[in-house]
Amino acid sequence: MNFQGSRRRGEDGIAMVIDFLLSNARLVLGVGGAAMLGIATLAVKRLIERAGRAADDEKVEQKLAESWEELSLVSASPTLIKKGIEGVVMKHVAKAARQQKADLCQQPQTSTPEALSKVESKSKRLQLCVLTLQERLQQYYHTRAALAPHEVQRAQSLALDICTEIQGFLHSRLPDMPLGEMSLGGSLLDDLQVVSADHACLMVPLQLEASLWRLIPGEETLLTHPLHWMVRRVNLEYFPRGRSYWDRYLVGGYLSAEAVVNMFSKSVMETINWPSISSTLDCLVRPVLGGTDLKLEIRPLNEFGAESRDQSLFISMLPLLREEDVVLTAQTELTSPWVNAWHLSLYPWENQRLTQLDTADGGHRRQMLKILKAVCRLNPALRPLEAAPLSNLILHLSDGESNWSESSLGARFQQCIMELIGYLENGALHSYFKPAVNLLSGLSEDQVDQMGFMLYCAVTEPEILLI
């Protein structure tokens, strides 16, 4: 009882110091200094935990020495610390740790059989609770990231039902519109969706006459953006306007992605009898209006016919053009304000490359990608990091690191954290297939600061990302 009470007083003293420092860190030290303070705080936390465990079976001095080695990361971290901050942090940390050490040394010797039995039982329970980073990653993957097969099957079934309804409507309403076979695509189909099966992609391929249309790479257009391609109408002298169905969506001699999206919005989203489809599918189907994309919300109904509290499924309708391995999508939210621009999707290339690498060496790159996606989705500070930067992070890392076996996931996870910190510091993560594209260009300065702070804290305690 004396030991526990003394330890509690020591923890209260440390808590007061840490609370004061952290509450004023962003204001006084800035983001970089606050990040270093976070690292120091986490290091002290591990110091206390190790010293507490050491009191049962080893010398306190030895464990404290091992724990202090972790604080060297504060000095070795990137040069975000302003002059004098390191001294302030280390001074308060050292003072709090000395108090904790003094309290630990006051532990009374417990020599009675009952006390030894209780200590031994507690030690065994602690050992059972302690997991390695590798074990924590596997646990996190199976409990948080990976989706249950029945959940994926249900979402895919609903999406396919909607696909059938929309395709049947378009064939009957606009029979002369040259469309390919609609299908599902994206992460739900490729087993890359994480946390919950809440979104799907409906691919709507447009069929263009090869002799009338030409796809222009972004680098060859006036936009000079590698991902902003254009589709030019050619051979007008031999085949005047009107010979192609898609001529009606020309703007300045180019097929307008915005005009195509507006057409589908009016002919599908605003025209289909969604209440009738809802009654057929026994779920509530309604268009999500007000945005630039074509999106539907599907919400399950309970046994009384009212909206269920279960997770909604969102289906994005995506008009696209295919030519060999090039896929262009009509996503005006990505190409605005250019009404004629089509977005070059790099997702098929990235997914194919990851699959090829894993197949060649039996690696777990796709599993690592799913873990990182779940971490970013469940952590508010990291949520702005989407799938594309994470996929390219792993692809770049794979060029220099060949061991992606299951047993090395812990090391690769820590490597990904350090690589991300470096990319954020430089303000650039270049696309693996289009190096001129910076995948971090859409992040604000505040978002970069928040992500950098969280990742710096995870350098010494990567487990904080797996909570």
TrEMBL record:
Keywords: Membrane, Mitochondrion, Mitochondrion outer membrane, Nucleotide-binding, Phosphoprotein, Transmembrane, Transmembrane helix. GO terms for molecular function: nucleotide binding. Pfam families: Mab-21_C, MID51-like_C. It is a single-pass membrane protein. Signal peptide: none annotated. It comes from the Eukaryota. This is Mitochondrial elongation factor 1.
